[in-house]
Specification:
Blueprint (H helix, E strand, L loop, with lengths): L1 H9 L1 H4 L5 H30 L2 E6 L2 E6 L4 H27 L8 H32 L14 H34 L4
Antiparallel strand pairs: 1-2
Helix pairs in contact: 3-4, 3-6, 4-5, 4-6, 5-6
Protein name: CASP-like protein
Membrane topology: Multi-pass membrane protein
Subcellular location: Cell membrane
Length: 189
Amino acid sequence: MATETAKAQNSFPEKFPAVSSQARRRFLIAQASLRASALVSALVALAVLVTSDETIVLFGIKFRAYYSYASAFRFLLGADAVVGGFSLLSLILLRFISRSGSNPRNYFFLFLHDLAMMVLMISACAAGTAIGNVGRYGEEKMGWVALCNRVTKFCNQVMVSVVFSYLAFFCYLALTITSANNLSSHPLE
């Protein structure tokens, strides 16, 4: 009797017979597609941000706009790198978890991973958006002038990078929702 209970706890199909193999396959394809999309989005955002650089001459003085001059953009770059790397690792982990007979509790760890990556991306996107907004429009009451009218190429590249970072965030938002839905239909015991 104890071996039957242990076997039932370790076998996904036996524990949840109501889940069709086609539904499970669709879930895994959606998971893999969203993870791959997050990976690509984060890497594109990273590449565009690293190459965002513009030098102008104003009143005979050279000024350079580069992402590393703003801590928010360095944070965005770091978050994109972390999310890109962990997206690749989670794709590999998904392959191992997707094997029939794997423990459904492993999906809980995937859910925690997705949640952490989603929170990291939204915080980095918010920081990049805030500084980008100040750069584009300035802040009159604080005396901060808009810079994007002088370094438009740099600002446009940063904006593209932030947009791709938001795409990675939305991929992880969808992953979190689908993982939570999967866990709610297959409660852990």
